[in-house]
Amino acid sequence: MKKARLAIGAILVVAVGWYLFIKPSDYIINFKVKTTPGTVMQSVISWNYDLPDSEIIQKGIAEVVQQRHFGDSVVNYNYSAKMINDSITQVSVGVKDLNNSFINRLTIPFSNSLFKTRSIANVDTFFEILREHLDQIKIEVTGIEKTPAIYCAFVSLKGLQVEKAMGMMRNYSYINEVLSSNNVELNGSPIIEVTDWNIKTDSIAYNFCFPIKRSENLPITKDIKYKRLFEKEAIHAVYNGNYITSDRAWYALLEYAKKNNIDVENQPIEIFYNNPNMGGNELDWKADIYLPLKQDDPL
């Protein structure tokens, strides 16, 4: 009996020591949502732009750390996510006050402290913003299809994922004016060809392409170049929603590839069929999104 008591006591000491001194977070909040981990993380990053005294200090496809300042407190919100079935993602938010961690751990089990209530309120706010965002987009993965073969005029751009739509808007009129003033015949809807996607830094390099009819008298400028996009096998999705967040479909395609053991190139191709300047219901805006299959290296 004495040994059993000693063993129980030792276990309690270890458990309390872990809780007070080793546990990564002071408080953990969990929720489930019908989307992909990547969409959750991108939504945290987008939301953070609207918050005062807040910054993203770590990025990843399934984990983001947001650091916020409240008076003399510096608080880290560690968002981590994993899919638990074909459509549902489990999100865990570990919250830690870097200045008052010990006292928080002592008081949280016994009271609704400011730290605890504020943490719950902030995560609830994000959850509602995420739900509203998901109501404004639709993604349907249709399986493996072929990308279109097309000849195009393009400009090369790079920046953060969230800046992709702005890059398109800045260059749309310029490319269109050069082509139309030189009587170049368009041959399809605008295309984004991502040439490099750095998931860790949330940045991309890409070509903004206008499909055209090839001719011998194409205008020569410093920025506009020409190339053929060749047909490729790719996982395909239909995206409906604001084109600023069309990258949400990239994460759906990555999850599909992971689930079906398909090797892919992290170089999405997007085809946009609507002109955002015309307005309308954003759920009526359509884009075809492709994630090319990895090609075998030539012998």
Automatic annotation (TrEMBL):
It holds the Pfam family GyrI-like. InterPro entries: GyrI-like, Reg_factor_effector_dom_sf. Residues 144-294 form the GyrI-like small molecule binding domain. This is Effector-binding domain-containing protein. It comes from Leeuwenhoekiella marinoflava DSM 3653.
